Amino acid sequence: MRRYGASPLDPMQTVTITASPDHLASYDGQVAALVACNLLGRLSPSVQIGFHDIAIHPRLPWAGRSLTEHALGGMRAVDPFGNYGARPINTGDFRFHLGPDGHDALVHGSGWNAYIGQGPSPLPLITSDVGVGAALSVVLGAAHLFRTRFGAMTVPFVSNAWDWTNAPIVINFSPVGISLGHVMTAGFGSVGSTANYFLALATRDFRASLIDHDKVRVQNITRSPIFTDAHAKIDLVKVNAGATFLREVGVKDVDADPVALHESSLWNLRDSGSIDVLISAANEFNVRYHIEMGFPPIQLYATTGRNWQTTLMRHTPGAKACSLCVFPPDARFAPTTCATDGSSARQTTVEEERTDAALPFLSFAAGLMTAAEVLKLSARRYPLSPERVMLGLKDQPLLIGTPLPHRNGCLCESRHAGVHRSAIAGSRYARLACFEI
């Protein structure tokens, strides 16, 4: 946090999470409660659950269990020395209230919509189980809490995760009953792990392949909803922690490869069309080069920045801008003379281990935005937003969507469209490709 010019929250200031009873009984309300406990428990060592206990919703992975016990267990697994418990709100607590009413300041999500601000909430009631707006509202609320140091929510903010605009939208599209297909995640750090966490809250109907060579470190715990103190103490490989989580919540088909992407047989030996969507959340070993020279399916990912922003990006096969247009390859890396020759794409560089940083709510925002795009891939009119969407959280929240420009001289200029078309043929979202006829 200090690398962002910020300091941790006052550990003596207790945050108490409360909720409107009707909202808490709904799927959206319980997604909000689970995400709030998970995120705030990584942001502060002093969090109390102030809502009455209830059984976890049938649509969630831990259906039927105690919501309070599950949430407390998660917070204590992150920080065994934290002050976490369940009690009514006390005088002096900062109240983090979930729902459309019940307090003067609200954190409310319904369907794809999110709101923070004074009550009552202006959001329309969406009855379909989505959860994305609920999770987004918690991220916005946590960012406000941290930015203002427990300041009042006097300025409202409304947004939606459907087309990433600052207005609520009535859309009943839900991932319930829709298979996501084969989702490969290259890089299982904060963004990759968080994206898979949010996918699992929405549906377990997907095949997951996880690729990352790295191990869980102490600095990873606060910014991933999956990693725990126990993982860091034994240097557990990140993809193994992720695979265990996904299997435990009910994702039946999970593969984990604890290597860098360019060394992974899951990537290098895959059949044409076998991967439906790639969450490209890695940033080492010239990974963008290896991805683009491997003729990828649609790519979705988000990055975090030092100005407290999260940027979502989408690269569709055949589009004018590939990921190398945005992240040019290392100067030490020699370009191939033929885009269909994979020999030099197996080269790599050795990078020094480094300790990076990210504010917890930024990582949650990045993973959530990525997961939201994956969940919308089957929507009839997808894509619904520009290729790049930036969410700024340093001041009053800001959403901006812009197209991605092509970079002149990029290696994708010589990539063979016919080969790329063949490589993704048969994949679930091949219809989204925009190759010229």
From TrEMBL:
Q: Which Pfam families does the UniProt entry name for this protein?
A: ThiF
Q: Which domain of life is it from?
A: Bacteria
For this protein, the record's InterPro entries field holds:
ThiF_NAD_FAD-bd, Ubiquitin-activating_enz
- Residue ranges of every copy of the THIF-type NAD/FAD binding fold domain listed in the record: 182-381
List the GO molecular function terms.
ubiquitin-like modifier activating enzyme activity
The name this protein carries in UniProt is THIF-type NAD/FAD binding fold domain-containing protein
Q: What is the lineage of its organism?
A: Bacteria, Pseudomonadati, Pseudomonadota, Alphaproteobacteria, Hyphomicrobiales
